[in-house]
Structure formats: C-alpha cells, structure tokens
Amino acid sequence: MTGRLFGRRRPAAERTVTLIAKPDCHLCEDAERVVTAVCGELGVAWEAKDITRDEALYREYWEQVPVVLVDGEQHTFWKVDPERLRKALR
C-alpha cells in the first residue's frame, strides 16, 4: 500500500516514515533532525534503520544515504526538505 486507503490519504497516525542512514554521517544527522521535527509536529511514527547493519539496505541505498521512505516508498535522499515531507504526510 502506498499511503492511500481506498483512494484516500491515510491519517497521519497510520503513516510511517523510515530514515535509512549510517553512523558518522552529517547528512544523516541533519535528516534525522528534520524527520524528528516534522513527524513530531504531525504525530507520525518514524523509525531509523542503519545500512551498516542490514546488507539488503546497504546494497540498495549505500550511494543515497540518508534516504527517507514514506509508507515504504522512497520519498527523498541526501537532503530532506521539511515542507516537502510535511506535504507528503498531510
């Protein structure tokens, strides 16, 4: 499912943001600050995944970290724009 439920956007409480990152990455730290702020503001759950601990994620995203997924679909990579993320979650 891609964030839609029977043709309608899912409520914020049912959305999930995933931040795929790696340790000692300044872009990842910046992305985490944006994700934390936006998700906190909108009441959206989020999780972080470390590509150094997951080989499949490493193979798929190593050139793009940080990567943000919204409801399992890639939303952005490298730099997270807070307004764009808010719009995707509303």
From TrEMBL:
Domain of life: Bacteria
Pfam families noted in UniProt: Glrx-like (PF05768)
InterPro entries in the record: Glutaredoxin-like, Glutaredoxin-like_YDR286C, Thioredoxin-like_sf
CDD domains linked to this entry: NrdH
Protein name as annotated: Glutaredoxin family protein
